[in-house]
Amino acid sequence: MPINELRAITTLAKAVELGSLRRAAKAQGISPQAASQALAQLENDLGVRLLHRTTRNIALTDEGRQFLETAQPALAALDRALLRARSAKDGGVGPLRVVGPRSCFLSVLWPTIDAFCSLYPDIQPDVQLDDRIGNWVQDRVDVGFRIGAPPEEGLIARRLFPLQLIICASPDYLARHGAPDSLEELSAHRCSVFRHPETGRLLPWSVKVDGEAAVRDIAPALSTNDAELEVAAVMAGQLIGQLTGISAAAPIRSGRLVPLLTAHTADHHSAYLYYGSRTAQPARVRAFIDFCLERLVDNADYVLGDQELADAEARGRKFVVDHGV
Fold first, then answer.
1. Rounded to an integer, what is the distance from CA 157 to the centroid of its chain?
2. Which of the following CATH numbers is that of domain 95-322: 1.10.287.110, 3.40.50.170, 3.30.70.120, 3.40.190.290?
3. Fold topology of 3-88
């Protein structure tokens, strides 16, 4: 069907719906003259009059009523097809700009993006990992992840899970050096300290003391600005480290790491997902937000319960005793 005939048929249907050819023209964004000409051309092509028109009223002829009754189901089906096509294009195709911290978050972010892209293979993620806080508008960010509150006012932040900071060591380290019984005894052990990637500052360990957040400066046997290197050093038995639950939960559960001084495990920070106004988002961005929230909110893969931590520490200390340290 030529596009001009389709436009004329939709003009006819809209005119009957609104009771005026002029209002139908306005609804379709064309001039009244163009609407009248389109309808006249359709009547000429069909060889029948479809609409009685006066300056004040319109009414379908018998032929026009029969024609419109036959055409309207097809018009409704066409509208549904157009809506599905537009929704699919918006929801399943296009760029998705995501930012997140470089330190420790890759093991959370990549499996999430990988699973999302399996559902929406035509979406093109543009992922920037950086520990600095960028500019939301200038960086054209769709969705961000951050430890702590969102970087700018006016953003919506959704808490995902608490970020635990767990003091831990490998069984091999404990077999050789024993386990500290207090925060003060850490000074007698080899410990790692994280160096902030942007400022270069050595970060104190964040701990919990009598239920309150506190910090402790630790003399480093090793310092690094790379979270994966720090995890590797602790796993290798070189030292005691304070690792995030993101990095430490799975090794603790498998027995490759032992949590220490678990009463002092800090959990006053959380991982957040943040984004701009939901009403202004493309469908693909909304789909990613919903997917992340469903997958990551209170995800136990990255968080150890208090009893779970205490039991793992008890097993580790028993290991030390059994090995005569």
1. 11
2. 3.40.190.290
3. Arc Repressor Mutant, subunit A (1.10.10)
Interval 239-285: pLDDT, tens: 999 999 999 999 999 999 999 999 999 998 899 998 887 666 788 89
* Bigger pLDDT: 75 vs 137: 75
Beta bridge partners of 224: 194
Q: How far is 317 from 175, CA to CA, in rounded Å?
A: 10
pLDDT digits (tens, 9 = 90+) for 316-325: 888 777 776 5
- Alpha-carbon distance of 306 to 231, in angstroms, equals 22
d(CA 302, CA 161): 8
DSSP codes joined into one string, 96-119 = EEEEE-SSS-HHHHHHHHHHHHHH
Return the ∠ at Cα 186 (arms to 315 and 248), rounded to 5°.
Answer: 50
Q: Which residues lie closer than 8 Å to 31 by C-beta, 6 or more apart?
A: 25
- Neighbouring-strand partners of residue 146: 272
Closest by CA to 217, choosing from 252, 177, 183, is 183
**Residues 96, 116 contacting (CB under 8 angstroms):** no
With a threshold of 0.85, does the pTM exceed it? no
Nearest to 257 by CA among 277, 234, 228, 239: 234
Quick one: CA dihedral 99, 105, 111, 112, positive or negative?
A: negative
In this structure, how many other beta carbons lie within 10 angstroms of the beta carbon of residue 117? 15
- Tell me the one-letter amino acid at 37: Q
| CB contact set of 151 (below 8 Å; sequence gap of 6+) | 133, 134, 136, 144, 274
pLDDT range class, residue 143, cuts 50, 70, 90: very high
